[in-house]
Write a structure and sequence with these properties.
Blueprint (H helix, E strand, L loop, with lengths): L25 H7 L3 H32 L2 H16 L5 H12 L1 H27 L2 H7 L2 H11 L7 H12 L6 H10 L4 H24 L7 H7 L2 H36 L1
Helix pairs in contact: 2-3, 2-4, 2-9, 3-4, 3-5, 4-5, 4-10, 5-9, 5-10, 7-12, 8-10
């Protein structure tokens, strides 16, 4: 391992670049991420494609699940976990299916169970695909690793409640990409317990609203029926929550970068 003395940082890997703040190209970063790169792209794209497929078959899948009785609920929650964890279907569409097929009282806990299982599966896939690659990239850039540590604590799991709070915030916005977020948090080694608990807490409100809205739909379900079941205030609330989360995360990240910049200035 090579490193210059008195430069204000300590390289954590043997292949650390001479200038730790030099930004690598997107192609270089993608290549160094290994399997995580293609999986991240699939996690961003496939739920959109799968969502259209699911919405087109809800009137077939929903009644069939309902006809299976208690076993239908088990099948729904299990399939939810697997399909969400593999980034094949969007969580919003699956929550709608649960509310319409089973009603709120049964559909809500079943959907939350699916979310929980899907998050753990996605986390395991992300951790296995990334291994230490993402952390190696972060350690080569003091500002990047400082932001990571400021948001989710040190690599040894320090800052449990801070990590729990950040994960909860990231899960709150309805437009937060479930599968992609699972993989990113796994890649940067967010501790598993606050990851799982933060996912449950953060996704509880948005899931409850989606399941409740779908449970009010009478007769066949389609895009128009889903839109009509959704109160107008939901759109404004979603925008407001997203803005608040961005402001908080941005403030934490800026404070971390400012500390690194000030430290580097003092060292020189």
């Amino acid at each position: 391992m090579r490193g210059r003395q008195g430069c204000g940082y300590a390289p954590a890997v043997s292949n650390a670049p001479e200038n730790p703040e030099k930004r690598p190209s997107a192609a270089e970063t993608y290549k160094r991420l290994g399997p995580m790169g293609p999986l991240a792209i699939l996690a961003a794209v496939m739920p959109i494609v799968g969502g259209f497929a699911l919405l087109g078959t809800l009137n077939i899948v929903g009644p069939w699940l309902r006809d299976q009785g208690d076993m239908g609920v088990v099948i729904y929650a299990s399939a939810f976990a697997v399909l969400a964890g593999l980034a094949l279907l969007p969580t919003y569409a699956q929550a709608i299916l649960g509310g319409w097929a089973f009603g709120f009282a049964t559909g809500y806990p079943a959907a939350m169970a699916g979310f929980f299982g899907g998050a753990l599966l996605g986390y395991a896939i992300g951790r296995g695909a990334s291994r230490d690659r993402a952390m190696v990239l972060l350690r080569e850039h003091p500002k990047w690793i400082a932001v990571r540590d400021a948001l989710v604590g040190g690599e040894q799991g320090a800052g449990f409640f801070r990590t729990l709070g950040i994960v909860t915030l990231l899960r709150l916005p309805p437009n937060s990409p479930f599968a992609l977020t699972n993989m990113v948090m796994a890649a940067v080694k967010v501790p598993r317990i606050p990851f799982a608990l933060g996912t449950l807490i953060g996704m509880a409100p948005r899931t409850g609203i989606a399941v409740w809205a779908a449970s009010t739909i009478q007769g066949e379900i389609n895009k128009q029926a889903v839109s009509q079941s959704r109160p107008d205030w939901m759109v404004y609330a979603a925008i407001g929550v997203s803005v608040v989360v961005l402001v908080i995360i941005g403030a934490v990240a800026k404070r971390a970068i400012d500390k690194v910049t000030a430290s580097a200035a003092r060292a020189t």
